[in-house]
Every structure is written in structure tokens, then in C-alpha cells.
Amino acid sequence: MPIAEAAQTLDPKLFGEPPERDSRFCQKARWVELINFPDDDPRKVIEFFHRQMNEEMNGVENAARSLADFPDADWNVRMSIARQCADEARHVEMFRRIFENRGGKIGEYPVLNFQYRIIANLRDLLSRLVVQNRSFEAGGIDAVTFAMDEARKRGDHELAELFEMQRADEITHVRFANEYIRDTIRANPRAALQVARALTLASEAFTQVMGSEGTANIEYLVDEKGRLEAGFDHSEVEVACTQAAKRRASSLAD
To answer: Residue ranges of the domains in the chain?
Structure first.
């Protein structure tokens, strides 16, 4: 289904075409267009499963696009991307299963496909891995760890186990990308400019999609252990912790 007209508010230079979805799905362009239930609404968790299922599908699609678009890439990184593709497909099924088991119907809620649109718009493999793996999925490690702990506190062991499996996979996805990025920059220091440009473009696009509404009230901080396992060094983790603390403080002040 085509994206709603509100997509016109986004800068077209920062986004590619949306992925294909069948008629059950209603694609939106910005976070404010989704159904964002308040925290005390029991539908909030169910809607999250539907949203997450689609985001994991974006992960499949982005990994598959990179395999198709860069057939001459190093064999080892192609194998890692292929494994990621399989992992993300498993995550789709995990979230679909828990969504339907808890009463959800596929297509019941609108979805965003901003990750696919941002990443597929980047023209080289280095930039795609910087944004998809080192940025989006690294942030996912932090969010999943927080969600896993919260599920355990509520006694929702089924959901906690799902998040635990997801976290383990995300760590491996970020780690292989970190290794590839470091090796690429070591071989060609000018590649660091590509990394910086990709992160700048992705940040601008993400801000347009999420707006201040979508980034308000962020509760989670950095999963330091998870990021170290994923191949970030201690200084990088310290920077991420500082940025997350400032973001949270700003959110609480608002």
C-alpha cells in the first residue's frame, strides 16, 4: 500500500522508495501518524509487537538488498549479512507469533518503514552497515535490554525470553559491522568521511520521521556490556552513555 500523503513533509533526498507491502498494511511516513497509545493502555504492548514485527521485516529487506546490491563484497562480510538476514526473518516470526497469540490481527495498526527507506537510499555498503548495524541496531541493543528487564519485572517470561534471543542476535550483527568498518577505515582512512556523512544523513532523516514527539520520554540508557560485546571500545561506550544520559535528562525536564 502506498505511503500516506504526509510523506511529502519529508525531504525526498534523504529517503528511498518504501518496500512493498500487501493490502493489509497501512504505511505511514512519520511517528505522529501512528497509533501511539498511552503507557497505561493495554493495547500499547500489542501495537508494539506489530510495529516491531514490521521493523524486523525492514531488517530482512535491508540485509537482502545489501547482498543483492554488492555481490563483489568480501565473502566473509557477505556471509555475515546472509546470517543477519536469516536472524531478522526469525525475529519477524517471533513477533508475529506473540502478536497473534495475544489477540492481534496483522495489519490492525499502521506501520513505519523509515529504516528501509533511509538505508536503501545509501549507495555503498560501508554507509549501509554504519547506519543499519552500528547505529540503528546498536540502539536496539540498549532498548531491548531495557525491555527485557521490564518484562521480567512484570513476570512476562515469554516476552523476556524473546527479547533475550533478539539481543544476542543484535550483538552479533553490530559486531561484524564494527569489524568491517574498522578494517575498511584502516585500509583507507578517507573512508571515515563516508562514515561521518552517512551518520549525518541518517540523523537528519531520523529526526524528520520521529520529530520531538517520537523521541520524548525515552527511559532506557546504554547497555554497556552489550555494546562492548558488540565490538565498541570503552571510549565509544563512554560517549554513548554521556549522550544517552543527556537525552534522558532533557526528556525528563520536558
So the answer is: 5-253
Q: Which residues of 90-120 are buried (b: 16+ CB within 10 A; e: fewer)?
A: ebbebbbebbeeeebeeebbbbbbbbbbbbb
Q: Is 28 helix (H, G, I), strand (E, B) or coil?
A: strand
CATH code of the domain occupying 5-253: 1.20.1260.10
| Residue 190: partners with Cβ closer than 8 Å, 6 or more residues away | none
Say which amino acid occupies 6.
Answer: A
C-alpha cell belonging to residue 74 = 568480501
DSSP characters for 213-242?
A: HHHTT------HHHHHHTT--HHHHHHHHH
Closest CA to 48 of 62, 34, 58: 34
Return the DSSP state at 41.
-
Q: Tens of pLDDT along 25-34?
A: 999 999 999 9
Pairwise CA distance, residues 49 & 92, whole Å: 10
Asked if 36 and 211 count as a contact pair (C-beta separation under 8 A), the reply is no
Q: How far apart are CA 18 and CA 72, in angstroms?
A: 25
The cell for 223 is 547497555
> What are the angstrom distances between the C-alpha of 136 and each of 26, 69, 77, 205, 239?
23, 20, 18, 13, 16
Cβ–Cβ under 8 Å, residues 180 and 129: yes
State the Cα angle at 98 between 95 and 104, rounded to 5°: 100
**Residue 40's CB: how many other CB atoms inside 10 A?**
6
45-77 pLDDT per residue, tens: 999 999 999 999 999 999 999 999 999 999 999
Q: Report how far residue 61's alpha carbon sits from residue 120's, in angstroms, rounded to the nearest whole number.
A: 9
